[in-house]
């Protein structure tokens, strides 16, 4: 007689996801067979019925806090606990410590700002609640990340362990994710043209980007762009998902646990629930907290890179991000040069929509698979016996940089490396010293979506084009392509397909009016 075992939370969640995605709705027998194929464990019909019932509906919510125990006990105030838990992690990362009394006091501060608490009496947050909160988040067993990892030998040992894990996966199934900052319209210098507009102080307008790719470069996830405005004017009526990216925002334009939790859910959906993959990340507190909120399905394994050594072992930091930024800034330099040649301040014509277009073009079309693969090998996550050299700067960028300086009559230009890789471009909220209360307030603002003065919303709205305008432009392109000898026919077919799409949109618009 087989030994009975309980259903794990991750297994029950995976079953619900699979069942909800099937059309038509699967029978209990089909669910039993699917579960057996996945986990080599045969469920009873009553277990399937219970797992798919409303009792476990909270497993479908990506923002719900899920315990790793067999039975789910999420707590009465999941949003409050998510904020408090993120604060606890961030404070620990900065070397701070908490007590039970401090946690209870901070919980009361959070409660007073939650919209759902309006008009309700503040809970006691008793000692019993505190113990359950600690148990849910394993606080007693938590280790401060970064202290042990500062020892080089320890990092080497940890990396060898990660290499062993990575050796169990195909190269195309090994992923790395990292964030980077981007000064998307920083000038070479203020120069003579921009000096005439002292009120324009947006040289360092900054966004954050979340990048993820597999080791071969054949599967690059959409870039997540994090700004300060919910919907900048330049993005009005723009569908960024159609462009191939995702837009998120918060008060400080950096990654937090709320956005990271969304990102993880998107990654799980992208990979699916049958393919076995490895995702590697650094143990930034937003990553850690988000993983508590959104644990992976059984087929996805997430491993932390050794602490304090991501510059050595993070694949994206071995040249992929630098190459990507150089490709982006080459487009910005070309735009700057055209503006200077027309005696126009380049910042006046620049906007976040153009920046996103160039970001996605650089990531999807210009960073090569060879660059990505070589950087994964250099990180030693993917083993290699070869010493690989990967060019970071794209061809012609130095000449373009010097041309911008000359045409713009720049008297105080910075070195090109400082322009391409500003020293403070990658600072995030955890690099800034702050008091425990200000850290807590920042986290509350992020969870509640409190807006901030932003660097994207002072831009002019771009012209809005109609389907008729698009059809006329496509016809011009078709006319031009028909005159080019040797051009593959597939390009004309692509334009004709695009033309058909806009004709259909035009027809739908007429029918609605």
TrEMBL record:
PROSITE patterns from the UniProt entry: HTH_CENPB
Keyword DNA-binding set for record: yes
One Gene Ontology cellular component: nucleus
Keywords assigned: DNA-binding
Keyword Amino-acid biosynthesis (UniProt): no
Domain HTH CENPB-type per the UniProt entry, residue ranges: 68-143
Signal peptide residue numbers: none
GO molecular function: DNA binding
SUPFAM superfamilies: Homeodomain-like
Matches recorded under Pfam families: DDE_1, HTH_ABP1_N, HTH_Tnp_Tc5
Protein name: HTH CENPB-type domain-containing protein
Source organism of the structure: Coleophoma cylindrospora
